[in-house]
Design goal:
This protein is an alpha/beta fold. The protein has twelve helices and 13 strands. It binds tryptophan (TRP). Tryptophan binds next to helix 11 and strand 11.
């Protein structure tokens, strides 16, 4: 992902405002600026000609990919989801105390299952509970909205199907708001992109608004590598699904049997690198734009990175982007952290040396 400086989208804003006024659970979509197939094809060509070869991870989440990701979160090796859910369960009421009755907007909401803890805490304190799940996958979003509707009929909800950056122009009109970004999805950005993302988010929020951020912490290699190489092979299917999608949508004709999943921890950069490896040479063409791509035996295509964080480093970084850390919640093993950040008032001097833990 490159620029996060989205121009306001009048179409999306209007739809969202209308949906909020009607108070009917609705899904709004961003205005289709670019044909989704052309967008996918262009991105694949750009990525497969790049060095190193990469594919944009937002394309992992089609209907099948989103379902596979849900299955990943249930694997015994994938500790992230259940650890974060336990932290949320333990502290949701306290978070609600600290934020007051804000709206909740969740970026990359997926199944929205962990959000139950927040919604429960909001509902318990009374008053309207307004929830805006945002996801690129319309299938995941519809399923999540249907689930929330049946579990929490009192929640007023508008699902927004778009990329993260497209929703930034809406945030000011949702204030007071808590933006939740869970699952350590922030670790899927490279460092400069992460900073651009956090700065843009800070600029889009009103001072006093909240940012609830889940981050996975640095830990032993074996635990990290197991989480991205589950025994049941679900993560491998998730990686391969990107090529299944290329075959289906771009008529690529890739031999899927010649693709294997590879994920390892790079200690020097403190990140897990997730790739597809071609086990045989093969050429294929993507339509449109119809260019031939040749992959050699052993060639890797990186599909994702997942950075692991150190609290003492990430908190000052986030504070440098316009937020103050209000509270840090973690589990007893310190495997995962949930940070409650608050948009600092504009132009106020940075509070130095004060790190609530
Ligand atoms: N946000 C998740 C993470 O970094 C995404 C993820 C989990 C993922 N497993 C994956 C992405 C496997 C690609 C491949 O943990």
């Amino acid at each position: 992902m490159d620029a996060f400086f989205a121009s306001p989208e009048p179409h999306l804003c209007r739809n969202l405002r209308d949906a909020c006024l009607r108070r009917t659970p609705t899904i709004v979509q961003s205005s289709p600026g670019l044909d989704p197939i052309v967008d996918f094809a262009r991105s694949c060509v750009r990525g497969l000609y790049a060095d190193p070869r990469t594919l944009e991870s937002r394309f992992l989440y089609d209907a099948q990919g989103s379902a596979l990701f849900e299955e990943i979160t249930r694997q015994p090796e994938y500790y992230l989801t259940r650890t974060e859910a336990a932290i949320l369960a333990a502290h949701a009421a306290e978070i609600r105390e600290l934020t007051g009755p804000t709206r909740i907007l969740e970026l990359g909401s997926g199944s929205s299952l962990k959000t139950d803890h927040l919604l429960k805490a909001w509902l318990e304190r009374g008053g309207p509970t307004r929830y805006y799940p945002v996801d690129v996958s319309s299938a995941a979003l519809s399923a999540a909205c249907a689930g929330i509707r049946s579990r929490f009929p009192a929640v007023e909800m508008v699902g927004i199907q778009c990329q993260y950056r497209e929703v930034f122009p809406l945030l000011a009109q949702l204030s007071p708001v808590l933006v939740a970004f869970l699952g350590s999805s922030i670790g899927n950005f490279a460092p400069p992109e992460m900073l651009a993302f956090v700065r843009t988010l800070a600029a889009a929020l009103r001072p006093g608004d909240f940012f609830l951020l889940g981050v996975d912490l640095v830990k032993e290699r074996s635990i990290l590598e197991a989480a991205y190489n589950d025994q049941a092979g679900v993560t491998a299917r998730f990686t391969r699904n990107l090529f299944v999608r290329m075959n289906r949508e771009l008529d690529a004709g890739i031999d899927l049997d010649a693709i294997e999943h590879a994920a390892w921890y790079r200690q020097d950069q403190e990140l897990v690198e997730i790739s597809a490896r071609f086990t045989r040479e093969q050429s294929f063409r993507l339509t449109p734009p119809g260019r031939v791509i040749t992959m050699g035996q052993g060639d890797l295509v990186r599909t994702e990175i997942s950075r692991k964080f150190r609290m003492e480093r990430v908190i000052p970084e986030l504070e440098g982007c316009g937020f103050a850390a209000e509270r840090v919640f973690t589990d007893s093993q310190r495997w995962f952290a949930l940070l409650l950040l608050r948009r600092r008032p504009l132009y106020s001097p940075r509070r130095a040396g004060k790190r609530p833990l």
